[in-house]
Amino acid sequence: MPNPAGAEPGSDLVAVGADLAPGTVLAAYRAGLFPMPTEAGLGWWSPDPRGILPLDGLAESRSLRRSRRRFDVRIDSDFEAVVMACATTRNEGQWITPAVQAAYVELHRLGFAHSFECWTLGPSPQLVGGLYGVAIGGLFAGESMFHRVADASKVALAALVDELRRGDGALLDVQWRTPHLASLGVVEVSRPAYLRLLAAALTLPLPAVFAGLPPTAVPST
Q1: Widest pairwise Cα distance in the chain
Q2: What gap in Å lies between CA 52 and CA 185, rounded to an integer?
Q3: 48 phi/psi in degrees, rounded to 5
Q4: Would residue 181 count as lying in a domain?
Q5: Tens of each residue's pLDDT in the chain, 221 residues
Q6: Is 94 part of a structural domain of the chain?
Q7: CB-based burial, 184-218: b 16+ in 10 Å, e otherwise
Q8: Does residue 38 sit within a domain?
Q9: Are 147 and 16 in contact (CB under 8 A)?
Q10: What are the strands, taking DSSP E only, across the chain?
């Protein structure tokens, strides 16, 4: 796995090649990389600057606080449906190919990938928003989010932040700071700063919310 510390500053794409086997993907996250297909093949990315959401920096508006009462938030109740929704309901989701979907479903089966989901209230609940990502130690690397009802993805993100705040500290990585994410409190840090934060996060215990599926089945390299 290439070391992003040696990559050219400001260049987000670090390498192309390798595979989506669980050990490969997890080694990438531990190194500060994540996979995303390119026209040339499977790309390994380390954005510079990197978008992160400080756990004390979530911009929770009054309307978002009201929206929390409109949904039943669940964790890992239908991970595959969340990944599929992210792949099919957003233009950005075009990179979530069937191979990528299968890779994250396998990581979920092994206890590393998790979803936060917003379901409608009532007798026939429907999945209307959510997000998924990878948890390793104190790192939660958010991969994608979707919504079919206003504020549903924001509520899922707020619920994730709530759970991460209960632990010993965590790094919430969102890859890039888009205008939408910036409105929620996402900030940018340089690649060297991100790698320092990552190294510290990987020494922390897995947040309790994810501890029901201990990540022990896949080697670290």
Answers
A1: 54
A2: 9
A3: -135, 100
A4: yes
A5: 789 998 999 999 999 999 999 999 999 999 999 999 999 999 999 999 999 999 999 999 999 999 999 999 999 999 999 999 999 976 655 889 999 999 999 999 999 999 999 999 999 999 999 999 999 999 999 999 999 999 999 999 999 999 999 988 899 999 999 999 999 999 999 999 999 999 999 999 999 899 864 443 333 33
A6: yes
A7: bbbeebebeebbebbeebeebebbebbeebebeeb
A8: no
A9: no
A10: 13-16, 34-38, 41-45, 50-52, 71-75, 113-120, 127-136, 139-147, 171-175, 187-189
For residues 195 and 48, give the distance between their C-alpha atoms in angstroms, rounded to a whole number. Answer: 11
CA dihedral sign, ordered 76, 155, 85, 94 = negative
pTM of the entire structure?
A: 0.93
Residue 200 and residue 46: Cα distance in Å, rounded? Answer: 17
Q: How many CB atoms lie within 10 A of CB 67?
A: 19
The reply to whether 78 falls in a domain is: yes
Reading the block at residue 81, the tokens are: 């449906």
State how far the Cα of 207 lies from the Cα of 166, in Å rounded to an integer.
8
3-class secondary structure, 72: strand
Tally of domains within the chain: 1
Single-letter residue type at 110: L
Identify the CATH number of the domain in which residue 151 sits. 3.40.630.70
Range of the domain at 185: 49-190+204-210
